[in-house]
From TrEMBL:
CDD domains with a match to the protein in the record: PseudoU_synth_RsuA_like, S4
Keyword terms of this UniProt record: Isomerase, RNA-binding
SUPFAM superfamilies: Alpha-L RNA-binding motif, Pseudouridine synthase
GO terms of biological process kind: enzyme-directed rRNA pseudouridine synthesis
Record-annotated RNA-binding S4 domain positions: 3-61
InterPro entries assigned: PsdUridine_s_RsuA/RluB/E/F_cat (IPR042092), PsdUridine_synth_cat_dom_sf (IPR020103), PsdUridine_synth_RsuA/RluA (IPR006145), PsdUridine_synth_RsuA/RluB/E/F (IPR000748), PsdUridine_synth_RsuA/RluB_CS (IPR018496), RsuA_PseudoU_synthase (IPR050343), S4_RNA-bd (IPR002942), S4_RNA-bd_sf (IPR036986)
Catalytic class of the enzyme: isomerase
EC number(s) given by UniProt: 5.4.99.-
Protein name as it appears in the record: Pseudouridine synthase
One GO molecular-function entry: rRNA pseudouridine synthase activity
Amino acid sequence: MAERLQKVMAQAGVASRRASEKMILDGKVKVNGKVVTQLGTKVTGNDAVEVNGKLIEQAETKEYFLFYKPRGVISAAKDNKGRKVVTDYFSDIPVRLYPVGRLDYDTSGLLIMTNDGKLANMLMHPRYKIEKTYVAKVKGIPTNDDLKHLRLGVKLDAKHKSAPAKAKILSSDKRSDTAIVSLTIHEGRYHQVKLMLEKVGHPVKKLKREKYGFLTLDGLTAGQFRPLSHNEIRNLEKLVEGKRF
């Protein structure tokens, strides 16, 4: 993502943003060997920026992407078994990206990819309670009591009970004895959605994450990604900032 030249200079510790602007106006800054005097100039991590003849070391540009993870892909930067990982889809992006959280190998859906470790850690922290909506194809057709248990929280194991969730049936098929269920949670325990549905007697046959906070998969198919807009990035920051301060 391109940033204003004076901001890049300030982040690199050259000078304050205002002082950096004066250096640009005074003709002391070169980008890729050419003197730049326009304050609106934007650069990326691939551009060579010189100040008073010295090349500055740019801070890594922050990148943010919304990725539609297919099934059969590992939510990691690498895999020691040689299986396909989410970063394989970003080989042309010139920074190292990491997934925010994870989706199971056999689960598809929305995943945020970024190199902004601070924001990623905050989004994953349970205190911020970011809502995530999953759509599951389950065995059997849940009853009203089953949905009530999901909404109140179910016991996952001897020590843990899920927080209250939003649950509803989207469709059902009596002939195949299956249903499509929407489940919205804000926790992120290992296999949580699968465990919750299994505990009420409806094992998951197929699972997809369709929503993360306000973000959706609209316009994407499995394996595709798009950069997040400035407004989307700011709104993600607001999700955690509003609950932090």
